[in-house]
């Protein structure tokens, strides 16, 4: 008696210790299912110790409690895991199987619901556990932890059927298999994938599944009513346990539906509010504020570490090479083991020309929360990209209209005006400038450096790179390779939202100088040295 109890104590302690060590070592995304599995092994060990000392009734109470813990444990494994994304169909089938097993046991196998000393409640519970563990294996056939859970559930079913019929070391060893396999399942690294979060997959509602769930919930009360009408309720315990399990499955099914509906409403409301704010946004800070407000509504506040609307992607934010071509989003590791970084590029294929640099919405937070809101965050990134493209296009149209207005005002004036971008590319030039340099039309992508004489280009370039307004004197090179001296007055309007460049006003000052200065860069090697020296002094101080 003592040695038998000691054996179960050692097996239970070893299984619980293995699960605790495995959870602390591998750090799964959700630890609650493994803690429930450890608690069920501890309760089972206590029941086996009571059974060794002959306390059958107390042992049966612990066994029933263990079944309840294991049912909750396996249902936790199927909640939001990567192996079972949609567990609605599984719950419906389990509830129907539970009611069907009860009816078969009571009315087919025997009038008392027993086959020898085999407990009907234990067998029904074992079959349900076997179904859930088998579904985990079907989700990933290479998951060793799922196979170990299935092996342990098979050992429990074999022990509950074989041990009452033929007590002995062989049938008792099936329970040892349960302790060993469930303990080893937490030690294998594949245990992480059992609770790895995955995006929810909503299946369409069908009326037949509701009928199946209603029939499953009505099975145990129907069996109880039939036995009561016959005059004696023989299988009260079995009916009560089956009814409790079926009720738990039904409540879980309804809770999942309510939770999914609530999450859908929250996402819809958050996206609707964000869309309205992004449509009204007039600049990039407004878009950034709208995106941050939307993220706070779509995700739990405690699950978000960082939200950034980047203009350009740094090398650290690019997708891994092994991930293949970048799609609508990709994942990157974070500092904390439970956190991940989701990168949603802000680029729409038809409008790549508007913002070639792209940018991205970068969110760092708990991976489980990010996966739940993954689809909504991708939609939010698309809306933000549309808002930024709209703002960029409006600014471009505004600059074009400003250029057209400026061209219409000064088309017939004698003033020479040039509008250049930050990179000194000529955006607009007045007709008087084209007449001055002897060209009918300027090339589309010409820069100011190409109009200025090569010797004056560094001086003009440095002057225009400096902040503020100013005046500089330089020579322009005509189409016939002659030069024209001009006084260039520039105004720095790079911060102006409509201009975003520099406005240059040119004045021809060639006639104000000595005729010998009209070609200041020409070579005069054949002239007298005195003339060359005089010309050199004039060239140095001509401005």
UniProtKB/TrEMBL annotation:
- The answer on whether this UniProt entry bears the keyword DNA damage reads no
Q: Which residues form the PAS domain?
A: 402-471
The record's keywords, sorted A to Z, are:
Membrane, Transmembrane, Transmembrane helix
**Carries keyword Transmembrane helix?**
yes
- The residues that cross the membrane are 6-23, 35-54, 60-78, 90-108, 145-163, 175-195, 207-226, 232-251
- Entries under InterPro entries matching the protein: PAS, PAS-like_dom_sf
* Signal sequence bounds: none
Q: Protein name, please?
A: PAS domain-containing protein
Species whose genome carries this gene: Actinoplanes palleronii
